[in-house]
């Protein structure tokens, strides 16, 4: 009975040795996997898979080629020395589809405007075009003497004028505004003192590119909340009106955030009747 369950001492020693060896090999495999994993993660371009996946949601584009053109704008450059023109080839590679009467601009209303445009098939923001969507919410930059794309330690929006990310948005916003035609809309924020701020992308880049007769009208939707500080009579909106070609019809409408949410959740109401 005892003999059946207890192995010979010599056999037991050999078995223990084998177990130790297996354990050591497993440990080594785990260590190698962790080291390789960390190295790969650091060297790979975490931006590329996101860019490609988002791009592939748009049918009929060569996304690998678009990535290649995009990379040329900033790879190997100081991230504070990427001027807007660096993205010209990218803009040329992916022209915007004409979308008369559907373009929606925004300033300081990002969440509300996208909640609205996603649920209702009425308007298109730059973030819903191919180039806007592939990079929305992302950060990237290159480094002098390197072929890599980095997504950390990149300069922020106001750290330097010609930074990788800011120049991209300025360039793509300009191209989007160049495309504006017919009736154009803009969602501005009525909860801030200056809804049309001169430093905003909308004021400094987009509005300057609305030309009559291609653009016929601009409708400002001023999103208000209970304690909103501004209304359509605010002086900054008068500045906006002055900035426009006087033949472009301007109007401004105050719309509560609650009204917009109600409109978003009722897709059957006609697009024009939300404001
Ligand atoms: C930014 O780039 C532009 C070219 O687009 C250049 O004229 C300008 O001097 C640059 N500004 C700075 C601060 O480097
Ligand atoms: C307007 O700006 C304020 C302050 O930044 C923000 O809290 C609010 O959500 C914005 N309103 C909209 C509609 O985005
Ligand atoms: C708009 O706001 C101003 C104060 O900034 C106020 O005097 C005026 O009555 C408001 N107009 C409307 C129509 O609410
Ligand atoms: C309206 O706009 C001007 C800037 O043009 C700003 O200084 C002012 O504070 C705004 N008015 C209100 C009542 O918020």
List keywords for this structure.
275 residues, ADP Ribosyl Cyclase, Chain A, domain 1, four-stranded parallel sheet, 43% helix, elongated, disordered N terminus, binds 2-acetamido-2-deoxy-beta-D-glucopyranose
Protein architecture, described:
With 275 residues, the protein is an alpha/beta fold. The protein has a single domain (45-267), classed as ADP Ribosyl Cyclase, Chain A, domain 1. 43% of the residues lie in helices and 11% in strands. The protein is built from eleven helices and four strands. The protein has a four-stranded parallel beta sheet. It is elongated. The chain starts with a helix and ends in an 11-residue tail after the last helix. The model is unreliable at 1-6 (pLDDT under 50). One 2-acetamido-2-deoxy-beta-D-glucopyranose binds at residues 231, 233.
Task: Walk across the major sheet and give the strand order.
Answer: 1-2-3-4
CATH architecture: Up-down Bundle
Shape, per Cα inertia axes: elongated
CATH topology: ADP Ribosyl Cyclase, Chain A, domain 1
Please tally the helical runs, counting DSSP H or I stretches of 4 or more residues.
Answer: 11
How far do the termini sit from each other?
90 Å
Give the bound compounds: 2-acetamido-2-deoxy-beta-D-glucopyranose
Write the CATH homologous superfamily. ADP Ribosyl Cyclase, Chain A, domain 1
Secondary-structure element pattern, one letter each:
HHHHHEHHHEHEHEH
Overall average residue pLDDT: 89
* Structural class by helix and strand composition: alpha/beta
The tally of domains stands at: 1
Beta-strand content bin: 5-15%
Oligomer: single chain
């Amino acid at each position: 009975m005892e003999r059946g369950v207890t192995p010979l001492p010599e056999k037991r020693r050999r078995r223990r040795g084998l177990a130790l060896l297996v354990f050591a090999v497993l440990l080594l495999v785990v260590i190698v996997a962790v080291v390789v994993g960390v190295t790969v993660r650091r060297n790979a371009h975490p931006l590329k898979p996101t860019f490609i996946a988002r791009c592939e949601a748009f049918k009929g584009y060569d996304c690998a080629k678009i990535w290649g053109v995009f990379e040329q704008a900033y790879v190997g450059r100081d991230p504070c020395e990427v001027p807007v023109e660096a993205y010209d080839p990218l803009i040329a590679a992916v022209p915007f589809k004409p979308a008369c009467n559907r373009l929606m601009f925004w300033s300081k209303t990002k969440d509300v405007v996208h909640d609205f445009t996603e649920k209702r098939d009425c308007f298109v923001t730059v973030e819903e075009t191919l180039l806007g969507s592939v990079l929305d919410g992302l950060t990237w930059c290159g480094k002098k003497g390197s072929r890599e794309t980095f997504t950390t330690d990149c300069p922020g929006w106001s750290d330097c004028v010609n930074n990788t990310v800011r120049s991209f948005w300025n360039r793509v916003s300009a191209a989007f505004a160049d495309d504006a035609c017919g009736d154009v809309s803009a969602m501005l924020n009525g909860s801030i003192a200056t809804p049309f701020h001169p430093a905003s992308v909308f004021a400094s880049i987009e509005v300057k590119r609305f030309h009559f007769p291609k653009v016929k009208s601009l409708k400002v939707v001023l999103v208000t909340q209970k304690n909103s500080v501004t209304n359509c009579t605010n002086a900054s909106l008068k500045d906006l009106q002055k900035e426009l070609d006087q033949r472009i019809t301007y109007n401004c409408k105050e719309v509560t955030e609650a009204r917009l949410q109600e409109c978003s959740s009722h897709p059957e109401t006609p697009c024009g009747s939300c404001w």
